[in-house]
Amino acid sequence: MRPARGGRPTRRTAARILVALAVLGGAAGAVLLARPAERSAVRPATPGAPGEARTARLAGALDAVTAGVPAALPALTELIADRERRVRAHPGDARAWAVLGAAYVERARRTADPGGFPAAERALRTSLRLSPEHNADATAALAALALGRRDFPTARTWAQQALASAPGRGAAYALLIAACTGTGDHKAVGRYLEQLLKADHSPAARARAAAVYRDRGWREDAAAQLTDAVAAATGPAERAAYLEQSGRYAWERGDLDEAQRSFTAALRLDPARRDALAGRARTLVSLGRSEEAVAAYRRALGDRPRPEHLLELGELYESLGQDGPAGAQFERVRERAGQEQAAGVDTALVLGRLEADHGDPEEAVRGLREEWRRQPGTAVADALGWALHRAGQDQEALEFATTATEEAQGGGVRDALYEFHRGAVEVELGLSGPARRHLEQALRTAPAFSPLWAPEAGRALAELGEPVPAEAPAGIEVAADATG
Asked: ∠ CA(380), CA(383), CA(385), 5° rounding?
């Protein structure tokens, strides 16, 4: 049952998770959310026609990239080659340029290669030059490109144009929700989610709703939406994406067995899925299987490592007392971030986290202040608050830590690291009661949320000790034990 007017849905039962797991080996019959016009660009072959399988793969990849649904890499590669041939033969075909640009964006995202973003932008701007009016395919793909670059204000602008060109388009609502989340406009997120769920009942819409519910701290509702998305997903790549998302949320709430099952199932369907490989590594760290985790991270990093995964591996090495390998990974974060910046990616968040804990906290504060000015999302509030704490500015740090963790300020997400950050700031300010509460919440949410900071949370909590019982008011005797 979907929520009325974007509100909280009725909670599902845990039994629905078993339904999703039961369909992993079977075929699903749900239809992708692409519009009929999108599906006709690559016509399905008639039974027995030459190249029927290839045509079907191209049609599926086309549906995926135009509808914002994860696509299988082999089919995506075929679609790119097909559209490249098309624009060479017909350089005035605006839609072919738009599909090509969208496919470039998806490939860059899937392979962690933002070097493909400039080519995507050229293709998409060519499409707009050829067809500047009502070109929803190009404007939606430009919004997706901006999201890939972590440029949320630009993503919002392009997504609004896509929606104006094609009212009711589910993919445009999903892009707007992601963009508004990044800019911290939580009221707009609620409005667009309501409109998305009215316009679109697809698995992709359910996965986007799950992300919103997760950000609001509605964990059971997020899990239920993902269970439905997994069960209804059309193909292996799409199903693997929702399983990875499910595993990530399970890890965040400390359910390591469920996280392992989800990541393993995702990788069985899509072995090249880097975020699932990294999720499995993260889960192995939380299980205390450090050697296996190091090997899993190396597989996830491959030849195009994501900076955030390099940072995680560096912190794992540091937690093991291996300062040399840790430092090498931190340098790789800077190197890889520089490469991403050259492709137009905003890396202020990951660099701010790196500098706060493993470099220059003052530099982290400067970079994250600018990031907060541009796009004040919850993740930036947490990172800036922590950088201020590491730089010794705890009073201001508490303001941002509160923003990241208080539901009334948009920080409804129940993230153990955010709770720890706030508790650590409160320890420094002598706020023992709130500090104890937030440190306990961090460890209750996910006891092994970080190889570096979970042990520190335990030590800080032990040093705080038990709360001192309140004294009875004068003139009132405390009742004796009735059995004494």
From this structure: 105
* Largest separation between any pair of C-alpha atoms in the chain: 95
| Closest residue by Cα to residue 417 from 334, 325, 353 | 353
Burial of 334: CB neighbours in 10 Å, binned 0-12, 13-18, 19+: middle
447 C-beta neighbours (distance < 10 Å), count: 14
Which class in CATH covers the domain with range 383-464?
mainly alpha
Say if CB 347 and CB 307 are below 8 A apart. yes
Report the alpha-carbon distance of residue 192 to residue 180 in Å, rounded.
Answer: 9
- Could you please report the per-residue DSSP string of 239-270? HHHHHHHHHHHHHHTT-HHHHHHHHHHHHHH-
CB 330 within 8 A of CB 317: no
**Residues in CB range of 413: below 8 A, 6 or more apart:** 214, 215, 216, 217, 378
Tens of pLDDT, residue by residue over 409-467, are 777 899 999 999 999 999 999 999 999 999 999 999 999 999 999 999 999 999 999 87
Query: Domain coordinates of the chain in residue numbers?
Result: 383-464
Q: Do residues 396 and 197 make contact, with C-beta atoms less than 8 angstroms apart?
A: no
Tokens 């698995």 sit at which residue? 203
Q: Determine the Cα–Cα distance for residues 308 and 272; give it in Å rounded to an integer.
A: 18
Q: How far is CA 68 from CA 136, 139, 426, in A?
A: 13, 13, 42
> 116 to each of 24, 333, 339, 342, how far by Cα in Å?
32, 19, 12, 11
What rounded mean pLDDT belongs to the chain?
89
Q: DSSP alpha helices (H): ranges in 68-116?
A: 73-89, 94-111
Region label for 185, one of left (φ > 0), alpha (ψ between -120 and 50) or beta (otherwise)? beta
Task: Read off the pTM.
Answer: 0.87
DSSP state of 114: G
> How many whole angstroms separate alpha carbon 453 and alpha carbon 415?
13
